[in-house]
Amino acid sequence: MVELSDKEQLRYSRHLMLKEVGLEGQLKLKAAHIVVVGAGGLGSPALLYLAAAGIGELTLLDDDKVELSNLQRQVLYKVNHLGQNKVSAAGKVLSSLNNQIKINTVSAKLSADNAQQMFSGATLVVDCSDNFSTRYVVNKQCLALGIPLVSGAAIASEGQLMCFDFRQPQSPCYGCLFGKQPQQQTLNCSNTGVLSPLLGVIGSMQALLAVNIVLGHHQGGQFIRFDALSLAQQQFQLTKAPGCSECDAEID
């Protein structure tokens, strides 16, 4: 039976005060297993807050090493982490933040061949990757396994946040919003640049959405666009797209 120790009750006392969380909600967070794809600009704040919030098990997937140019925005890492595998360095930082949770680190690139194994048993997946091909792999596997997906993106001064609850048969998917295009151009921080605090905003919102889904406060099917210069935010409710190549939506 899952329960909170005395130390956990003290650690999460500010959650326990909230009627939206309370003891029941904190136990849900402790029982959850969240897979985070990408431990970079978006993954850094997302992982920090998921660990701090008390997600019982976190799995980190990333095959990159820490570089000096990462430190402008990837707040998990310090100068002494340069040259290390990101997941190894991230795992140490997160363990020092919360040593009462389980942290799995996988230094590998997600692919169609290993996605099922990586996501098996997960409560939810948070996609913090920076390219279309990985996002489609994440979307397809979450759809197949019926796992909720929180996806984020940030480029230049614009951020995007998406949530799909594949436990619901009528949930739209990433492909409904961004259909595959021939020779789809990949824009990312490396070739376009990004305002660093924007990644903190979107990554933190990904963690917040993930926590809300685990607690049962969010149903998915939402798209948010955020402008880092004006601080304007637009929200849209998503529906299945007819003929979606990813979820093969059928509209009556």
Automatic annotation (TrEMBL):
Keyword Zinc-finger on entry: no
Extent of the signal sequence: none
This protein's pathway: Cofactor biosynthesis; molybdopterin biosynthesis
GO molecular function annotations of the record: ATP binding; molybdopterin-synthase adenylyltransferase activity; sulfotransferase activity; thiosulfate-cyanide sulfurtransferase activity; ubiquitin-like modifier activating enzyme activity
EC number: 2.7.7.80
Highest taxon of source: Bacteria
UniProt keyword list: ATP-binding, Nucleotide-binding, Transferase
Recorded GO CC terms: cytosol
Family annotation (SUPFAM superfamilies): Activating enzymes of the ubiquitin-like proteins
Catalytic activity of the protein: [molybdopterin-synthase sulfur-carrier protein]-C-terminal Gly-Gly + ATP + H(+) = [molybdopterin-synthase sulfur-carrier protein]-C-terminal Gly-Gly-AMP + diphosphate
All copies of domain THIF-type NAD/FAD binding fold, residue ranges: 12-245
Family: Belongs to the HesA/MoeB/ThiF family.
Record NCBIfam families: PRK05690.1 (NF004281)
Role noted for this protein: Catalyzes the adenylation by ATP of the carboxyl group of the C-terminal glycine of sulfur carrier protein MoaD.
Record text on subunit structure and interactions: Homodimer. Forms a stable heterotetrameric complex of 2 MoeB and 2 MoaD during adenylation of MoaD.
Protein name, as recorded: Molybdopterin-synthase adenylyltransferase
